[in-house]
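agent> Task received from the user: take the single chain below, predict its 3D structure, and emit structure tokens. No templates, no multimer pairing.
agent> Plan: (1) validate residues, (2) run structure prediction, (3) serialize to tokens, (4) report one or two observations.
agent> Step 1 OK, no nonstandard residues flagged.
tool_call: predict_structure(input=
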Amino acid sequence: MRKLARFNRNDSYYSTIYFSYRNILYKGIFFSNYTDNVTPVFFFQLNSYDLNGNIIDVIVLDKRVYVDGNEVLYFDDLTIQQNGEILVSKHEQYLLDYELNNSQDEGLGKGGAKYKIITYQMSNFGIFKKIKNQLSTI
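)
tool_result: status=success, residues=138
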């Protein structure tokens, strides 16, 4: 089972959505945390539960954060479809007016962005399975 987020006394979390798919209960939770005691991160996590209320699986579907001194914005958009597929568009946008490259000289130009579309399937047993991964640059 994937690691379930641990909540500290100072963390905030809110249950926001409940739905059932193939006799499995799903609960969506928004919460915030800090990556380095300074940078706030906002998350959306989906949990699956059996009929007895025991947790089956956990998946983080959205994570929003500014990093590198507010030079890069990371955020995700998601759609949960009626057929049990979850489409997650993971975005990475550079908020700079100059080129940003990493140590392998890869990067994006001024204000560039890239995104990755990941498709998950909710199984009949409440397990989240990644079924597709696609990378694009804007």
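agent> Step 4: summary for the user.
The beta strands are 12-21, 24-34, 40-49, 55-67, 72-80, 85-94, 100-101, 107-108, 113-122, 128-137.
agent> Done.
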